[in-house]
Each structure stands twice: as structure tokens, then as C-alpha cells.
Amino acid sequence: MATTTTPPSSASESLHAAKAAAEALPLATHAPVTVRIEPPRGLLELRLRELWEYRELLYFFVWRDVKVRYKQTVIGVAWVILQPLMTMGVFTIFFGRLAKLPSEGLPYPVFYFAALVPWTYFAQALTNCTTIVVANQHVITKVYFPRLVLPLAAVCSGLLDFVIGFAVMIILTLSFGIHPPATVALLPVFLLLAVATALGVGLWTSALNALYRDVASIVPFIVQFWMLASPVAYPSSLVPERWRWLYGLNPMAGVIDGFRWALTGVGKPPGAQMAASAVAVIALVIAGLIFFQRVEGTVADRV
Amino acid sequence: MNVGTFEGSNVATFRTLKKDFMATAVIAAEGLGKRYVRGTVEARGMLRDSIMRFARNPVAALRRSKQETFWALKDVSLEVKEGEVLGLIGRNGAGKTTLLKILSRITRPTTGHAEIRGHVRSLLEVGTGFHGELTGRENTYFSGSLLGMKKREIDRKLDEIIAFAEIEKFIDTPVKHYSSGMYVRLAFAVAAHLEPEILLVDEVLAVGDINFQKKCLGKMGDVARAGRTVVLVSHQMNQMRRLCDRVVWVDGGAIRVIGAAHEVVSAYELAMSRGADLRSAESRSRQRAHFVGWEFANQEVEQPHILSTVGPVTLKISAESTEEIDRVTHGIALYNNDRQLIWGTAQYGLSLSPGRNEFSYEFSSLPLRPGPYSWLLSLFEEHEELDMWDAVPEMIVATESFQHPSDEWCGTLNLPARFSLTSPAKATASSNGSGLT
């Protein structure tokens, strides 16, 4: 309970206070608040404190999404492992054995799987994020909560799948006799960049989708093109030197290269390029927040 | 905003009395307005449409949004005191729900501002956030959290909620397999266990079977008694009378009348049943003669608009006149709550004097079934209408009932009858009810 009380002077008083607190429990669980309702103003009102108060709802949104997702599929959780494994198989056969694309000396399965785990997360998070506002329109028009909870839930709910995929990735890497170096501790940094990228773009697409439903049909194409523009099926060393700067602007290129490097020690450590794309992602998230908030105000009236 | 605030209340007195000393306003709204862009609901934004519109006429496409707007709410100011139960009534599209949505922060106002002290929970529908694939238990957690409960709170109340919904056996079954009754019961049980300081409710009580509705109303009554503030939208006028302290009549996006519950509700019902708007007080007072009030005299109880005896009673009606008027016809009619005419009569060839004239009807008895009634009073000079008044407040008959305990066998009249049975063997008499005194 968030209430502050002065220590009671006697035992009977403390008993009395405890009883009073118990009686007041339903109301006292929330600190007294005054909410001011007024027309939207300013560029960005973040209200991070309020968002924090709604953290349990964020958890429940993620929890519900995960539950429903696994209940609706026959094989449930196995799907999370099978999907990237099968993609890895296809990539290994076609890009690896047939097209003989280089893999920087890594076994193809490890090379592809290390990229597919962060990529699958990103693609799923972005797709989820795009539709989440419209999918919850019924709830939005009936109850208040910070709307930012929705895109946050979308990027968080893929994390469980990511963890499962990550475990498979470690097993796979070890089974090929590769022992991940200490740099593996840096993986959360790359994951964070992937989450931020998905959120940054997802804020835009989810808000745009509330305005124009076409966006949900466009996003799968964007994801597809984006994958080709990222070193998932090929190493980024394949990109000509003079285009590297442009390529480096794609934050997912940094994420995927970072994953491979952190896991196997192969490739170049992340440098200034990645720092630049991290800054770009932060800018994207902030711009996304502003745009999302603009649309958010009208979303209950529109959807 | 033609009719002013009604002062004083009769039936609601006992409810407002206990709240008189609690005077803190927990909701204070000032000049709230909401402008909608017309058509946004239908034109579910397709990018193609926007592009086409822009391609056809770029200038018009950009200007468009500015033109087709309308105000769903205009300059609404109101205060709700701590512990008060405030009702919102009005026709569909009058702006009740918009007001409720602004107060519950679902949508933001275009103008004005409001301040709300305390935690607000809103209940705009039953079963918000329910998902068919999830079990009753899982939905309870999600929906509860969405409505503003903490997880710990749900943990604590879960058993109570399940028991209230009477679905113990099915709590771990996906709700898609529920009957609609079970679904609604669970959804309502979750909502009924909210314990907010301020509760905003929209027309949600009109679900479920009668018994369950009563149970929910009882639970809501508990909420009101616990000193929580409630703002309630409903079309069920009797419910509004029973639950609310004050009622706001919203009309055309603005507050039309605000006052004691049964008075505003009655005024609204009368206006609706006549299919016309209430004539404004100003236009009536401009007439040469008009009614100003009515009451029961010679009653023991000091509530001049409540009939509490089946014995003799005198109805007194006052009318103001600005001048001497002859050949006046005065009509009176009594309607019940279903707008059925119960009784009517007229007096011809009356003369009114300047000042207050008092009409008086002495009834030996008004044996009416308990409930709300209304007087329609008229004044004519020859055939020219001077005044036609749906008397406010309405008359409440609150006498002892001599009728059948079951509703379907109650008629319009509440006739006090003395019963006796004479058997051939032993002459015993039993009395049921008392007669006239």
C-alpha cells in the first residue's frame, strides 16, 4: 500500500490503526488522485507516472495475447520453435547449399538461426503492433487506460517467443561445437534495439492503421522488403563498401550482425554505425510517440 | 435552458438529508464541449478514399474536415458532490453518453475542463475485454484489470465474484461455451465488485434476468450507501427515481434541467409523453393567468405532494392572474404513470381576480394504487387558452395498499375494503384491512 503513516504510539493504537487500514483497504489501495480533464494540448504529454500505474494492465494484455495465441493453435508452443526451425531449413537448402551464399565461415544452420531469432521477433512485434489499436477498438471506446499500453503490449508479447527461440539458438550453437564467447552478455543490448525499432515503427503503423485500415495490408510487404534489406539470408559483408553507410541506417542490420557477433564471435563488433542507428531509433520512437498521441486523442471517436 | 432549477424535493429528502453535510465536490466540470467530425464513424478511413478525394479536388479535400462538424456537447458545467448519486437522462443523441465518456476520459473534450478528485471507474458495457477463448477465471482477471482492479484485489475477491455470478462449476470453461445468461452474470459480477470512489455507469443494468438485475441493483445500492459517488445514465425512469439523488436532463448537448431526482424525471416523462417540449416558465408567466403550484392540504404528514391517506383530502391549486378575467373555464385531469387518464372534470363560468386565486377540490377519498401520478391543469377564457400546465412535482400516492400482493392482480384503484366471512357453524369474522375513518 502506498500510504505513509506515522508510527503509532501505543499497541492499542496500532491495533486500531491496522483495523482502520483493513476497513479502508479497497479505497486506500489507490493513493488519492486528482485528474484534470481538458482538451489535448502541446506536442507530447508523456504521463510516464500514469503509465507506470497501469503496468499490471500491460502485463494482463501481454498475458491475454499469449494465452489466446497458444490456445487457438493445435500444437501451441511447439509452433514457436518450429517456425524459425523450418525457415532455417529452407534458407540452409536454398540460400546455402544451392545459391552458395557466404556465411562468414559459420555453419549455415547457426548462421541463419542466429538471424532468424531476432528477425522473427521483430517481424511479429511490428505486425502485432500495427493491428493492436484497431483490434482493441471495442475496449478503447468503453474504458479508459493509457493507450500507449497497447503498442507496448504488442512489442512485449513477442518476448516469450523470443526467449524460447533464444534457448533453441543456444542449444543449436552448442551442438555445432561453437562455444559462445563472453560477448554473449551483450545480446540484451541488441534485443533492446530490436524492441525499440519495432516500437518506433509500430507506433506509426498502429496509429496510421487506426486512420487508414489499408496500413495493415501494407505492413506485411514492408516486413518482407525489410528482411531483404537486412542481413538475414546473407552476411552484410556482401553489401558493397560504398553502400555500407546507407545499409547501416537500417537498425535491424545492426541487430542481426550484433546477434551473430555476440553469439559466435564471428564478424565485426558493432561500431559507430550502430551507435548512429541507435540514435536514429530513439528519434523514431520519440516522433512515433508524438504521432501516436495525436491520433490517440481521436481514436475513440474514429474506430 | 429554459426551465430553472427545481428547488426542494419530497421523496428524495430522506436520501439527500444524510448527504447534506458532505459538501465536497468530487467532479467539477466547466464549459465542457465536444465537437465531432460528421461522418467519421461511417467513413472508416480507407486510404484510397482519402487519396481519391485529394486527387479529385485537393483544395476541398483539405478544407472538408473543417466544415462537417457538429457539437455533441456544448458548454456543460456541473458539480457532483461526494457520495451523491447523479442521474443523466435525455433522448438518444442528447449527449449523455458523450458527457459520460468525457468524464471517464475515454474521449477528450474540445473545450472546457473538468476536475475529478478520486479514483474513477467507468462501466459503459458489461463484459468489457471478455474473450471467448479464455476461461471464466482468466476473463475475470483481464476484465477486472481493465476496469481498474489490482491483481491482488482480484485474487482476494475471486471467490466472491464466482459465487455472485453463480457459475462455480464452469469457472474454468472458456466463456464461448457459456450460455448468454452465464456470460452476463459473470461479466456483471466482475463489474459489481469494483470499489471505486467514483463510478460512472451507462445503461448497463438492462441485462440479465429480473432476479439477477435485482441482485445487481442491490449491490449498486451498497455502493451508493458506502458513500461512493455515482453518475448513472439510464432510460429506466423508475430506476432513476429509486437510485438517484439528483438528475440532470440533457437535451441537445446541453443541460436543460438539473434538480431533485423525481421532479426532473417527472418533468422529463411528461414532456416525452406529450411528444412536445415543456413550455418554458417564462412564456407561461407572460400569460394573463397561469398556474403556480398545487398541494394537498389538511394532511397529517408535511409533504404536500405525497398522498398518504385514503381518507378525505383537499387538493389546492393556485393560479396567478394579472387582471380581472370572467367566463373562465378550468379543467383538471389526473394521469397515472402509464399516461392513462384516471379522472377528469371541468368548471365553467369562473371569475378570476388579480393576484393569487386558489382552486380547491375536496375528495372524500382518492383510492389510487400507490405510485406516481400527474395532474394536468388548464385555464381557458372562452376558447382561448390561458394556461395548460403539467403540474410539477408529480403526485406520489404512498398510501397503505389494500390490493393483491401479486402485481398482476392489482388494478388502478386501491379500494379499502372490509372483509368478513360468515360460516354456518360458528360465526367468526376476520378483517383484512381497515375501512375509511
Written account of the structure:
The complex is a heterodimer of chains A (303) and B (437). Chain A is mostly helical and 303 residues long. Chain A has one domain (54-302). Chain A has helices spanning 11-23, 25-28, 48-53, 55-72, 78-98, 108-135, 137-140, 149-157, 159-175, 187-211, 215-228, 244-248, 251-264, 272-302; one strand at 34-37. In chain A, helix 6 (108-135) runs antiparallel to helix 8. By secondary structure, chain B is of the alpha/beta class. Chain B has eleven helices and 18 strands. In chain B, the strands form four sheets. In chain B, strands 5-6-7-3-8-9 form a six-stranded mixed sheet, sandwiched between helices. In chain B, strands 11, 13, 14, 16, 17 and 18 form a six-stranded mixed sheet that branches. Chain B has helices spanning 13-17, 47-56, 58-67, 96-103, 136-146, 151-165, 180-192, 210-225, 237-243, 261-273, 281-285, and strands spanning 25-37, 69-81, 85-89, 111-117, 120-123, 198-202, 229-233, 246-251, 254-260, 289-297, 306-307, 313-321, 325-336, 341-352, 355-363, 371-381, 384-390, 395-397. The two termini of chain B are 47 Å apart. The interface between A and B is large, with 40 and 52 residues. Strand 1 of chain A pairs antiparallel with strand 4 of chain B, so a sheet runs across the interface.
